[in-house]
Specification:
By secondary structure, the chain is α/β, with parallel strands linked by helices. The protein has 27 helices and 30 strands.
């Protein structure tokens, strides 16, 4: 079928693009096996010209365990291999075709592959949607349409290729570092950036193990989500390391992440394009949608993925998770031959919330018997440089600490690279296996590839980190992941249909796109959110009567759909204690409202009781264009803007998940009771957050923004004093 005939049959480009954006699932492992684990490969565009993509791929195919076939009508042979004019002329239908041809020739080749029944194709050519040009976007959309209609799975265009270490299939034009056969603790590498993916794989030179390097490029068909889903059930890797920029349908990546969670395959993600300039670069790089970094972090965490902040921490964190058993305890034991390194470890442990309990008396006795008095038999444990004259002391101390049931992991900073360095990881490895625990070596010398690096990485139960921060971040994530698995699946109680209908009716009756405070609180009260009592009045006399009924002191607020930020407009008066103050306050707020231009619509003035002092919280939600409703919690009032101490999650959340959000806040100590201040019933607060999140999720089709600020909390008393709801 000619290209023109094919394009006519599938319809116009816009229709094709719409169809592509509708893909909601992920490809199964079986659908990608011929592409990613091929028994035969055709190199289309094979060449003998030195340095060409076709020549480079053929060179890499020399190591391939399967059958490879050069395809190029200009050659009869290349080296000692027969070269075939077309994929249809091959002695068998290849599982995968590597297309090393110019962009102008790619579409016709892809059609030939589809017609021949090839299982998958990898396209190197660039200059498609990443250019932003309409005609190039159309070319990529036609490739996507071919994939949809024929079942030919396509990686690319604009990609470097893929590597399967099990077959030593190097389906790439890069002169890559050879990847040995993977061990059981291998990491599967996935990257939208081909160069970064291949760079991670070079960790094999320092003892890391990799099973796959899967790069996606522009992802006209197979993308990051499909790669994650493929590796989720692949026994060749113990964990997945993912370099992620963004994608137009991130919900599919979340589906794949959930499948990895169900398979108990740790997924570790480094999300780049977190700033405005980075997001713009991602658009030009792969034609992807970068999205909000905070949103991505929140939804990845919901799906059970571990997110690292630094590219340098990605591979070592993934290697840790590939090796680590479930933690037997939350505590970490630190043993070092340097007091300074021990202090650094303690600092990072505190920063990441990793407990450092003190050893039991029995263990302490063993430590004291081997550590000189100028060392430390506490945790962190400083065995001092005396270990040089008493080499067995380090192993004895490490064994004692690992035998303590308080500790799930042993952390040992290694500050100097020399011959004895290579022996210590082997000792830790044997002890960790003996106790069913984990050990971490933190490499603190500038001799980055010194003795001990390869040995650490090759151990089954020792993980090597190049920074103390990355080590304790991984340990915190290890505990978090274990707690999430132990908690099991969480379900939010469904809202009764009658409640949803009642709140929809209230929203529909609102006069404007932004509900007034009174209207918003009336809506939220149907979801069990506790709101302050109030009266809407029209005159100063009515204000005095309402204040007497509600009880002094009171608050006055002008109600207007045109004044969502009342403090800035000066239309609020607080702590009014008698009738004279109420009358003066009424006159003042109305006068300030009259100063606003253009003149706002005024419904009246709200009279509310002045609540006793408490901790102010904010509970909000917004409808993210990529992820739907997201709930955010933080310290309220003006502090939310000053401190920017918030936690985010997809809505709805269970009370258990809501409590987890509160525990993420730096200000959680205020909620627990700080320096004699009364604490807050965190479980009650978590229930309120869960109720607000249910509302946001139930009304995602109409509510675009929601803000309860402040929610005043004191003990088990929670009261929403102000609220904002914006509808579509």
């Amino acid at each position: 079928m000619a290209t023109g005939e094919y394009a006519a049959r599938i319809g116009n480009v816009n229709q094709a693009k719409t169809m592509q954006n509708r893909r909601t699932g992920v490809y199964s492992r079986e659908q990608l096996t011929r592409l990613l684990h091929p028994q035969s490969i055709a190199v289309i565009g094979a060449s003998s010209r030195a340095g060409s993509f076709g020549e480079r791929v053929l060179f890499n195919m020399k190591h391939y365990a399967g059958r490879s076939y050069p395809v190029n009508a200009r050659y009869q042979t290349i080296g000692d291999q027969t070269c075939y004019p077309n994929v249809a002329d091959l002695p068998e239908v290849p599982d995968c075709a590597v297309i090393a041809a110019a962009r102008e020739a790619v579409e016709e080749i892809v059609l030939d592959c589809a017609k021949a029944g090839v299982g998958g194709a990898i396209i190197f050519a660039s200059g498609y949607s990443e250019t932003g040009k309409e005609e190039r976007i159309a070319q990529q959309e036609r490739l996507a349409a071919i994939a949809r209609e024929t079942g030919l799975r396509i990686v690319g265009p604009n990609c470097i290729g893929v590597v399967n270490a099990l077959l030593d299939s190097r389906m790439t034009f890069m002169d890559i570092t050879p990847i040995p056969q993977p061990n059981p603790q291998a990491v599967g590498i996935i990257s939208q950036s081909g160069a970064l993916g291949m760079a991670l794989a070079q960790g094999v030179v320092r003892g890391l193990s990799a099973s796959h390097v899967l790069t996606s490029g522009n992802s006209c068909d197979v993308d990051m989500a499909d790669f994650v889903n493929y590796l989720a059930t692949d026994p060749a890797c113990g964990s997945i390391a993912c370099v992620f920029e963004g994608m137009a349908t991130p919900d599919r990546l979340l589906l794949a992440a959930e499948n990895a969670w169900a398979a108990d395959k740790p997924l570790v993600i480094f999300k780049m394009a977190t700033g405005e300039q980075g997001a713009q670069a991602a658009m030009s790089h792969t034609g992807s949608l970068a999205g909000s970094h905070a949103s991505y972090r929140a939804v990845f965490k919901r799906a059970g993925a571990v997110v690292v902040d630094d590219f340098e921490a990605l591979m070592e964190t993934a290697a840790f998770f590939a090796k680590a058993p479930p933690p037997k305890a939350s505590g970490a034991a630190i043993v070092a031959a340097s007091g300074g390194a021990a202090i650094m470890a303690a600092d990072r442990a505190e920063q990441h919330g990793v407990p450092l309990p003190q050893p039991t008396p029995e263990v302490r006795t063993i430590l004291e018997s081997r550590i000189p008095e100028f060392g430390s038999s506490r945790n962190p444990c400083d065995v001092t440089a005396q270990v040089l004259s008493d080499p067995e002391s380090l192993a004895i101390c490490a064994n004692a600490l690992l035998s303590d049931p308080q500790y799930g992991v042993l952390v040992s900073p290694l500050t100097y690279g020399y011959a004895p360095s290579a022996k210590r990881p082997l000792v830790y490895n044997d002890l960790a296996k003996q106790h069913g625990k984990m050990a971490c070596v933190v490499w603190q010398t500038e001799w980055q590839e010194g003795p001990g690096v390869v040995e650490s990485n090759q151990c089954d139960r020792v993980a090597l980190f190049r920074s103390m921060n990355a080590c304790f971040s991984a340990l915190a994530a290890w505990q978090w992941r274990a707690e999430k698995r132990a908690a099991g699946a969480q379900a939010v109680t469904a809202t009764p249909a009658e409640t949803i209908a009642q709140t929809r009716a209230l929203i529909a009756r609102a006069a404007g796109q932004t509900l007034t405070e009174r209207e918003a609180k009336a809506v939220l009260s149907h979801y069990g959110v506790p709101v302050v009592g109030e009266r809407l009045i029209q005159t100063a006399d009515d204000a005095v009567n309402a204040a007497a009924s509600l009880g002094y002191p009171v608050v006055l607020k002008v109600e207007s759909p045109d004044l969502p930020h009342k403090t800035e407009a000066g239309v609020i008066r607080l702590n009014l204690r008698n009738a004279d103050e109420v009358r003066a306050g009424y006159a003042a707020v109305m006068a300030n409202a009259d100063k606003v231009s253009p003149p706002p619509r005024i419904n009246g003035v709200l009279v509310q009781p002045m609540l006793p002092q408490g901790i102010e919280m904010v509970v909000g939600a917004r409808n993210d264009p990529l992820f739907g409703p997201l709930i955010v919690v933080g310290l309220g009032g003006i502090l939310v803007e000053v401190l920017k101490d918030t936690a985010l999650s997809p809505a709805p959340v269970t009370p258990f998940e809501a409590e987890g959000l509160l525990r993420q806040l730096k200000g959680v100590k205020l909620l627990e009771g700080f320096r004699g201040m009364p604490g807050v019933d965190i479980q009650r607060l978590a229930q309120v957050i869960s109720d607000v999140s249910r509302f946001a999720a139930d009304h995602r089709d109409t509510v675009v923004e929601l803000d309860v600020n402040p929610l005043i909390c004191a003990g088990d008393r929670m009261t929403a004093v102000d609220a904002l709801i914006v509808v579509a």
